[in-house]
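Example 3.2
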Amino acid sequence: DPQLNYVLYHGRDKLYASYNAGDYWEVLKTPTSGGRFTAIDVSPLNSEVIMAGTSIGEVIITKDAGENWEILNENGIPSRWVTDIAFSNKSEGTAFVSFSGFYTPHLFKTTDYGKTWLNLSESLPDIPVNAIAIHPLDENLIFIATDIGVFGTFDGGKNWLPYGKGLPRSPATDIKFAKYSLTQSTIPLRVATHGRGIWEAPVSMDLVTEPEITSPSGGEIFVSTTQQIIAWYGFTPPVRVEYSIDDGM
């Protein structure tokens, strides 16, 4: 629980809660029909609002700390493995949910406790999304860990682009913003990969309002036969990419 650090939740074939830092666990009665709990999050604005998801795609929510639950699957989200849930820091009823699998959307947003959902993955590749990180100051900036690396959006999910200079094109399994202070100009964004270590990239503290090249940062020398990511935000298409093979001469 973001507000009460002695309150813990744990998912197995059932959903468990501890109210004394793990000394004792109790089973919460939930309406799920099977599968294992694979994602849990608690609203940082209200400890009684909890959302959880399972390996068979069921998503449930409680607004009274687990006394009563509501199943949200009839509201337009796919029956796929739920990989992550992330509540908003600004609006109690707003949350993001990601899904694994193929041939269905992979990232959704709700602003009304799951009554309705908005698909944010229309411009994403058809790949599993494994984890979500929301910019702490601007929730239009969202970063996701996927099976082919990290993607970011600067407009709330309308457009996505690869993010992170030099990040291996391997499955990214988790992603988090590090702690920060308002005196910093950037916030570290950290991602864990499958077999390729943990990586870090800076994300601006300022709101992104102008066109920007997000990768590479400039001045790099690309070795022939290697793969590189070139990504940008805010330019009106078509976009022309120029390169030099003689050091810009």
